[in-house]
Amino acid sequence: MAPEIFIPFRTEDKQDRPGYFFILSGPSGVGKNTLLGIVLQGLKGVYYMPSATTRPMRTGESQLNPYVFLQIEEFEAMIQSGQFLEWKKIHTNDYYGTHLPSIQYAIAQGYDIITDMDVLGCADAVKAFPDHICTIFITPPSIDELSQRLYGRDSDVSNIQTRLSRVELEMKHKDQYDFVVVNDDLQDSAKRLREIIEQVRSSKEFCSRF
């Protein structure tokens, strides 16, 4: 039995080439999800690839928004059958993972997808799909500004400090990405991100691995 494909692709969005896999990375609080939301509203035929998780669905959420919600038994069975490109179990004992068959299907069938990943997950994706991937690192104007953003939206000081401790590690990887976007102005950054995606979709010259 073939694995289930998580994304409801539409035939009219097929490209006459293999699909492209866009990945956004960047420190927590840099605005990746906000940028993605803005950009996806104006991009036709690019599908968001949701992560799978076992955490409970919250008010206002639904299947595929913003995750594929699975039972623990389902997730663990999928781990055993090799259905995750990468996965992790966090301190709350919830699993998170990126569904490999959905990515493979998208690339093989000519659908363009985009998601956000941490730097380690992105490295795994580049190894798995070197000829079909475009990586984009979102960076803050400065670490001080990122710190202000985090303190402005979270009252848990220990949580903020944990996130900030990862920033230096993540920033060391930015030169390994195909593109870097500085998120100093949300609308300008969204415009730049959209331009990158549109350029890559229309020409194979914009990503070194294409």
Automatic annotation (TrEMBL):
Enzyme class, first EC level, given as a word: transferase
EC number(s) given by UniProt: 2.7.4.8
Gene3D superfamilies assigned to the protein according to its UniProt record, in alphabetical order: Guanylate Kinase phosphate binding domain, P-loop containing nucleotide triphosphate hydrolases
Domain Guanylate kinase-like: 19-198
Pfam families in UniProt: Guanylate_kin
Its biological purpose: Essential for recycling GMP and indirectly, cGMP.
Similarity comment text for this entry: Belongs to the guanylate kinase family.
Protein name: Guanylate kinase
Organism this protein belongs to: Sulfoacidibacillus ferrooxidans
Gene name tied to this protein: gmk
